[in-house]
Amino acid sequence: MASLIPSGSASGTGSMTLAAPVTNSNQTITLPDSTGTIALTSQVLGVGQTWTDVTSSRAIGTTYTNSTGKPIMVIVSGTGGGANGLWGVTLNSAITFYTPSTYTTSVWTTACFIVPNGNTYALSQQGSSATMANWSELR
Predict the structure, then answer these.
(1) Count of the separate structural domains present in the chain
(2) pLDDT tens string 60-117
(3) Cβ density class 34-72: b for 16+ within 10 Å, e for less
(4) Domain containing 1: what range?
C-alpha cells in the first residue's frame, strides 16, 4: 500500500515546491517530514462549492462561461420528446453530446456535465417539445 507523508503547505492557485528530494522505494513515497498541510482547493470539484439553482438566470440556446476559478458541475432537467434526443450540450463550441430520447411523447430527462474553468457551455433544445424545468450548478 502506498503512503504519502507531506511536508510544507500550499494553497490557492500557485504551485507547490518540495524543499527536499522525494524518494521512491517499492511504491512508498517519503517526503522530508510529516508536519504541514497541503491544501488542494484551487481546482478540486466540490471543495468550497455549493449547489445553486440558476434556473431563473439560464436560457436554452445561450452560451455561458465558467469564470469561477474552479470546474463546475451542471445538471439540467426537463420534459419533452423527439427522435434526436431532448438536450444538446456544447462545451467550448466543439464538444457536443445529446441526451437520449426515442420517445415522441413527453418524457422527463436530465443532462449532467462538468465544465472546466474558463470553458464555455450551452444547452440546445433538440426535441421539438423540450421544456427546461430546472438548471442547477455546483459552483
Answers:
(1) 2
(2) 889 999 999 999 999 998 876 655 556 778 888 887 777 665 555 667 778 889 999 9
(3) eeeeeeeeeeeeeeebeeeeeeeebebeeebebeeebbb
(4) 1-42
Residue 2 and residue 30 in one domain: yes
Are 18 and 83 part of one and the same domain? no
Cβ–Cβ < 8 Å for 76, 134: yes
Cα–Cα distance for residue pair 134/74, rounded to 1 Å? 10
Grid cell digits, residue 108: 422527463
Report the amino acid identity of residue 116: P
| Residue 64 in grid coordinates | 455561458
Backbone angles phi, psi at 57, to 5 degrees: -110, 10
Q: What's the pLDDT tens digit per position in 23-48? A: 544 444 444 455 554 455 556 788 88
In DSSP terms, 113 is beta-bridged to 74
Q: Rounded to two decimals, what is the model's pTM?
A: 0.65
Amino acid in the structure at residue 76: V
SS3 content of the chain, % helix, strand, coil (to 5): 0, 40, 55
Q: Residue 23: what are its φ and ψ, rounded to 5°?
A: -110, 150
